[in-house]
Amino acid sequence: MTVTATNEKTETGRPTSDELLFQPATLGPYRLPHRMLMAPLTRSRARQPGNVPTPLNACYYWQRASAALIITEATQVSQQGQGYAWTPGIHTLDQVEGWRLVTDAVHKAGGLIFMQLWHVGRISHPSLQPDGMLPVAPSALRPQGEAFIENDKGEGELVPFLTPRPLLLEEIPYVVRQYARGAKNAKDAGFDGVEIHSANGYLLDQFLNSSTNRRGDHYGGVIKDRMRLLREVVATVTEVWGPDRVGVRLSPLGTFNDIHDDNPEETFGSAARELSGRGLAYLHLVNPATTALERGAGPDPRSQRMLDLIRNVYGGTLIIAGGFDHDTAEQWLREGRADLIAFGRKFLANPDLPERFRLRAHLNRDNPTTYYGGGALGYVDYLTLAQERGEEPKPCIDERWR
Ligand code: PHB
Fold it and tell me: Are 212 and 206 in contact (CB under 8 A)?
């Protein structure tokens, strides 16, 4: 058995060596030292104008390079794919150069990093779109809720969503090409792989779910057709990267961004089955059990069955994210319900999360008021255990990765 910290004792004196969280794993061509990943987290701190990653963003990821794998914040593959103020893109040369700072920094620290490729579809606003046009979607159905945009004073502001413009059949190849370009640019920027964002009510999820896809052509209707765009995007991205460096994220039973599906077992069971056997690096699920809890509903009784179904039909590596702590993550691995666990908010607030878990140390709490926008505050100033003990924080904007 290859394990880290074989003779290590925790703060409470318990050995950690037999924990599955600390067992190495393989992911596509990569060997992971343990099973704790950093989940994608929107932080809205790209340089303006241009949505370009900065040395500060590089610092943030570099601090978290002890994750077995970092999956970046969702990153728009085109201007049309942007849905929130100040999120980074991967469609201009400046953005590729900016991401280079990030990948170099993470690699210097021994980490591994995949970029999450994103198109928001209808979850946008004309002020974020090319030429102030309407956001695009499978069908002309307005989402409930508000878009987060930049106002005239350069501040963030919430404004109601508008009815999107349905994509013409002849435009769909152009959308697929946006992903292809994003995938190529991610390669130029030095990433180790990419994750296709097909979750949380954004474009690909809008095609998958019955509530948002009312198309009469062969991109709508039965699930085989609602899945067509995802299939085409996976095909074009795997052409760039090879399947073993590509992951896909789904959110079965998700309701975020005003979405639902009339037959989620069929929809997400079929999607997982379709993705299985392609040699992808992984399938990444937003935990359906926590989705319901977060909207204030009780636990969704369908979530366990959904997870079992996907585990059964998907033959490859399965990652689950959402609401885990050390003990529940370990338990899910032990029960064989997932192969790897991704942590979002816990990684946001604890740059050294694997070390803290290894030592069973206390955790910092995340501050939701600094999730989106702003600078270093609530971003790169969460302390490691070593810093809590008095070690000087390493300078953030540092020549080491330039
Ligand atoms: C968000 O910005 O709130 C956000 C972005 C991407 C997601 C989920 C939430 O997948």
Answer: yes
Domain that holds residue 67: 20-122+167-401
Within a domain: 363: yes
Pairing of strands 340-343, 36-38: parallel
Distance (Å) from CA 83 to ligand 1 centroid: 9
Q: What would the pLDDT profile of 80-136 be if each residue is shown by its tens digit?
A: 999 999 999 999 999 999 999 999 999 999 999 999 999 999 999 999 999 999 999
Residue 151 counted as domain residue: no
CA 284 – ligand 1 centroid, Å:
15
Atom of ligand 1 nearest to the CA of 84: 2
Residue 14 lies in a domain: no
Task: Please indicate whether residue 49 or residue 301 has the higher confidence score (pLDDT).
Answer: 49
Res 6: pLDDT: 40
Average pLDDT (308-327) is 97
Count of the separate structural domains present in the chain:
1
What CATH number is given to the structural domain containing 367?
3.20.20.70
State the CB neighbour count (10 A cutoff) for residue 138: 26
More confident: 289 or 222: 222
- The residue whose two tokens read 């896809």 is 213
Checking if the pLDDT of 5 tops 60, the result is no
